[in-house]
Amino acid sequence: MAGIKLVNVDKSYDGKNWIIKDLNLEINDEEFVVLVGPSGCGKSTTLRIIAGLEDATDGDVYIGEKRVNDTPPKDRDIAMVFQNYALYPHYTVYKNMAFSLKLKRMDKKEMDERIQAASEILGLKPYLDRKPRALSGGQRQRVALGRALVRQPAVFLLDEPLSNLDAKLRNQMRSEISKLHKRLKTTFVYVTHDQVEAMTMGERICVMNEGRIMQYDKPQVLYDQPANLFVAGFMGTPQMNFIPGVLKKDDSGWSVEEKGHRHLIPEKKYADVDLTPFEDKNVVIGVRPEKLNLAEKDSVGLAGTVDLVELLGAEAQLLVNYNDTLLSAIVPVHSNLEIDAPVTLAFDMNDAHLFDQETENAIFN
Amino acid sequence: MSKRSPGLRRMQRRKTYTKVFAVFIILLFLFISVFPFVWVLTTSFKPSSEIFGSRTAFNMIAENPTTEHYQYVLGKGLPKAIFNSFIVSIVTTLYVIFVATLSAYLISRFRFKGKRMLLGLVLAVSMFPQMIIVGPIYNMFYGLGILNSYWVSLAYSSITLPTAVWIMVAHFKSIPISLEEAARIDGAGMMRTLSHIIFPLAAPGVFTTAIMTFIASWNEYLLTFTLNTDKEFHTVPVAITSLRTQFTILWGQIAAATVIVIVPTLIIVLLFQKQIISGITSGAVKE
């Protein structure tokens, strides 16, 4: 059982381009943490540094109390599941799982018990004598998990384990991995580029971009209180709408002015924040699509034209061209809107987020 | 027959002509490459008188077939030469596989300065004509005092190693690196990863390389001829050239000996041609 701590970790191959820069991350014991971000954001590299497959150029890596920078992967008490499974193709399922235990010179009886137990959990019993090529994608994924499981490691590292599976299987494996975590009560670090996976599985999510941590918190916090424009745009589908404007103050209070509209900010929104430093500065209003509604006829709102209607089943996603900004709104299916039809959208400033355009950081949520 | 447009018919006729032409070219090519072997085979069973006689020389089948040439060559030094050939070829093959595996693994897996240059150099070396390097090799062997010995394997490997390294690099590169990382995490060291994971997976490549090295060594002539002047260490190709007297060349015996040399190569190629082809081409495209 062990937590993980990365302190001021840097990674670069050539000393010029930094894949990871000054990364600080603490993962508690028994916690399920998801590293998420677009490709090239350094999430996989972070995982590989924890695993010991890559060296940190600078900084310290701790697993438990021990600094492991110079510890080889096999002595770090970790197990890793790879995106392409990385099963040994010439070994049977049983031997794949036994490989690491044999290298530890574990006695045959205990080894067999562990493998039987793991294959019981993962439903692999009927396939122990098969070679990986005779298995389906989902089964291979289970073997990869099983191979990690038998080692009873302190930390599980999973590198996009579900990205090679089809949608249905992915959903199923997602919940199985979550269950596995609850059952094993060990630390899980899970890398994915899929924010839905991150939201559903992670106890805490670490959103990364360009080698830096953008925000590290519980899923609901990331969704409700994104720390910056990147997190706001990355978490949630469809993406959050961004409407640029200028922050103004007058007798009626604070408001955001954009293209003729004035959005008055309710007082309770800035009860805890001092807005004065941002006066007359460029800001961005953020509104989630589900908070953007069709306005009553002839009422004041964001008037635009329909660009696209996408049926999602129970509801429809509406893309509206508003002053050359595309806004998406979730509306009832029976709205019967046609392309290029004029439409007016409205939202409540109580549901809006406000970001500083210059630093991209949130002013209030 | 259903009615077809004249254009279609013309196109089909042209197709037939092309086909006939292609078959003709193929047959011609086959004849040119196979005929000498057939001729050697028939000659080896002809008594000497029939090999030269103006009436019998062009017969495909001997009038009085005989095995006297085989008896002669097998009784006179050829078994020793065959033995030498096997020793030298097997030693060369094992040595080349060992060195090529390690170096190809290193080249395919590690980043180091001058890697491209190293690979280029290996390729360049394999393109040197043997005649150019035979002199320096002779001097070296003379200096080391290992002329007339089985050490000739070492010289053989200098010729077969470059190709072997190139084929193996292609094979190692086709094995996903995550397998090695998985093995590393599972606790395997580099040598165990190589022997338990990489080597078995590269087996088709290793096998191809082994066969090609063996065949190349088996057919090698120049190096043994130069380095091993002592008859005791002659390999079969060299032994064959000594089948002559001051004034005549013993064609019958040469033919018999040639047939004997070809046999192992032929068996290997016929048995493993599929593996050889797939071994050469695998790693060329992503599967």
Keywords:
heterodimer, A: about 375 residues, alpha+beta, Rossmann fold, OB fold (Dihydrolipoamide Acetyltransferase, E2P), 2 domains, 6-stranded mixed β-sheet, 6-stranded antiparallel β-sheet, 8 helices, about 25% helix, B: about 290 residues, mainly alpha, MetI-like fold, 13 helices, about 75% helix, disordered C terminus
Instruction: Tell me the helix content of chain A.
Output: 10-25%
N-to-C CA distance of chain A: 37 Å
Strand content of chain A: 25-35%
Mean pLDDT across all amino acids of chain B: 85
How many beta-strand runs of chain A?
21
Domains of chain A (count) = 2
User: How many DSSP-defined strands of chain B?
Assistant: 0
Describe this structure in words.
The complex is a heterodimer of chains A (365) and B (287). With 365 residues, chain A is α+β, with helices and mostly antiparallel strands. Chain A folds into two domains: 4-234, Rossmann fold (3-Layer(aba) Sandwich); 241-364, Beta Barrel (OB fold (Dihydrolipoamide Acetyltransferase, E2P)), CATH 2.40.50. Helix content of chain A is 23%, strand content 34%. Chain A has helices at residues 43-51, 93-103, 108-122, 137-149, 167-184, 195-201, 219-224, 229-234; strands at 4-12, 18-27, 32-36, 58-63, 66-67, 78-81, 155-159, 187-192, 204-209, 212-217, 241-250, 253-258, 261-264, 282-287, 293-294, 302-311, 315-322, 325-332, 342-346, 353-356, 362-364. In chain A, the strands form four sheets. A six-stranded mixed β-sheet of chain A has the order 6-7-8-3-9-10, with helices on both faces. In chain A, helix 2 (93-103) packs across helix 3, helix 2 (93-103) runs parallel beside helix 4 and helix 3 (108-122) crosses helix 4 (137-149). Chain B is mainly α and 287 residues long. Chain B has two domains: 6-44; 76-281, MetI-like fold (Orthogonal Bundle). In chain B, helix 10 (203-219) packs antiparallel against helix 13. Chain B has helices at residues 6-44, 48-52, 68-75, 78-109, 115-127, 130-144, 152-173, 177-186, 190-201, 203-219, 222-227, 236-241, 251-281.
